[in-house]
Design a protein that fits this description.
about 140 residues, alpha+beta, 3 helices
Length: about 140
């Protein structure tokens, strides 16, 4: 895996990742940014949420759960002093479908957290990671 970060201006960067995609990273105006892209720690949180989402969706599909909507909302708290690591992360999983088995969703979330998601495994060294699961019919 590889990523190259190119400085553009002030605190604006373009990240080019190994899969060939690019995204803009920028800081808040308080730090000289122009608010043209995501903040680095926002990307870390989004990466963790998408990592676990990837796992759970694959497991739900394998279990033949017919979901019509799926999302993971991530909320984090950070330390007050540098380095301002995440100290708590809450992941809220929302799954909608006509006949979703909540136990299958719960098992998938648990397996992602305990076995498969490398992003949450890393962040779990500094943050308490909690989950909430909301299942509804379509």
């Amino acid at each position: 895996m590889k990523s190259t970060i190119k400085w553009m201006d002030n605190v604006q960067f373009v990240a080019e990742v190994g899969s060939g995609h690019a995204l803009v990273i920028d800081g808040a105006p308080d730090y000289g940014g122009r608010n043209t892209g995501a903040r680095p720690m926002e990307l870390v949180l989004a990466g963790a949420a998408s990592c676990t989402a990837f796992d759970v969706v694959l497991m739900l599909k394998k279990a033949r759960q017919n979901f019509t909507a799926f999302s993971v909302e991530a909320e984090a708290e950070r330390a007050s002093e540098d380095p301002k690591v995440f100290t708590a992360i809450k992941l809220t999983f929302r799954v909608t479908g006509p006949a979703i088995d909540p136990k299958v969703v719960e098992r998938s979330v648990k397996l992602s957290k305990e076995k498969y998601c490398s992003a949450t495994a890393m962040l779990g060294h500094t943050a308490e990671i909690t989950t909430e699961i909301l299942v509804s019919a379509a």
